[in-house]
């Protein structure tokens, strides 16, 4: 595993399809305490791994079950990054891409029911990124696909009733996947969902129900960023 004794050098791989509606670099960027560089995967732009110690793989409006050519390229890049010992954090679609790249396409599937809105997740193991076993932090979620049936090389860190693999870690590596979108706060999430309804995005009724439910966000992003970058964890 590569040691990161110096300031982390972070690249964000932006997997958004319509950056006018979904702006993951902006969402992550407002929470990051260090400089970063962003690369638009849909345009075939990817980081030179020699220049970075950390990668964030964002969500996407695309389905991991219907991978375009750029997805295959990114999966190969992710596998190489992990082999080199880079720290990698995938969120939502990026979480699914990690399973796709490191375990195989048979480990991603359509969700029985989408999870949309602010949901509590159950922590199954102590984690510097998420907290202690048994805690139930709330965070934003929006997914129609999910990770399933992971091999033993992965540890499952969190679950919900609808999704068995809410968070995972590749054992022995600084590699984490989160099905949720912790970087999306309540105002951002509400606008994002409203914009999706206006554009006719799939799951309209589920999105509308989420917009009418009470919202609560535990601010998990602060702990996640600190743990991922190797900084002291913030006080809860």
The CATH architecture name reads 3-Layer(aba) Sandwich
Q: How far is the first residue's CA from the last residue's CA?
A: 29 Å
Separate helix tally: 6
Proportion of strand residues: 15-25%
Tell me the series of helices and strands, N- to C-terminal.
EHEEHEHEEEEEEHHH
Q: If you consult CATH, what is the topology?
A: Rossmann fold
Strand order of the largest sheet: 2-1-3-4-10-9-8-6
Oligomeric state as shown = single chain
- In the residues, how many domains can be counted? 1
Structural class: alpha/beta
Q: What's the count of strands? A: 10
Can you identify the CATH class?
Alpha Beta
Shape: globular
Quick one: CATH superfamily? Answer: Class I glutamine amidotransferase (GATase) domain
Low-confidence stretches: none
Describe the sheet with the most strands: 8 strands, mixed
Tell me about this structure:
It is built from six helices and ten strands. Strand 9 and strand 10 form a beta hairpin. Helix 4 (186-198) runs antiparallel to helix 5 (204-212). The chain has 236 residues and is an alpha/beta fold. It has a single domain (10-229), classed as Rossmann fold. The longest helix has 16 residues, at 69-84.
């Amino acid at each position: 595993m590569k040691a990161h004794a110096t300031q982390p050098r972070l690249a964000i791989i932006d997997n958004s399809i319509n950056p006018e509606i979904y702006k993951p670099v902006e969402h992550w960027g407002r929470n990051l305490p260090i400089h970063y560089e962003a690369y638009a995967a849909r345009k075939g732009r990817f980081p030179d791994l020699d220049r970075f110690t950390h990668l964030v793989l964002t969500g996407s409006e695309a389905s991991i079950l219907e991978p375009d050519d750029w997805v295959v390229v990114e999966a190969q890049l992710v596998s190489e990054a992990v082999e080199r010992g880079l720290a990698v954090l995938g969120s939502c679609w990026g979480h699914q891409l990690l399973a796709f790249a490191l375990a195989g396409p048979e480990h991603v599937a359509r969700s029985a029911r989408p999870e949309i809105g602010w949901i509590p997740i159950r922590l199954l193991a102590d984690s510097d990124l998420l907290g202690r076993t048994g805690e139930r932090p709330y965070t934003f979620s929006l997914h129609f696909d999910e990770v399933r049936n992971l091999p033993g090389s992965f540890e499952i860190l969190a679950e919900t009733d609808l999704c068995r693999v809410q968070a995972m870690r590749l054992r022995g590596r600084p590699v984490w996947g989160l099905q949720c979108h912790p970087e999306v706060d309540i105002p951002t999430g509400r606008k994002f969902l409203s914009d999706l309804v206006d554009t006719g995005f799939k799951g309209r009724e589920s999105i509308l129900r989420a917009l009418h439910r009470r919202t609560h966000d535990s601010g998990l992003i602060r702990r996640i960023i600190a743990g991922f970058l190797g900084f002291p964890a913030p006080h809860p």
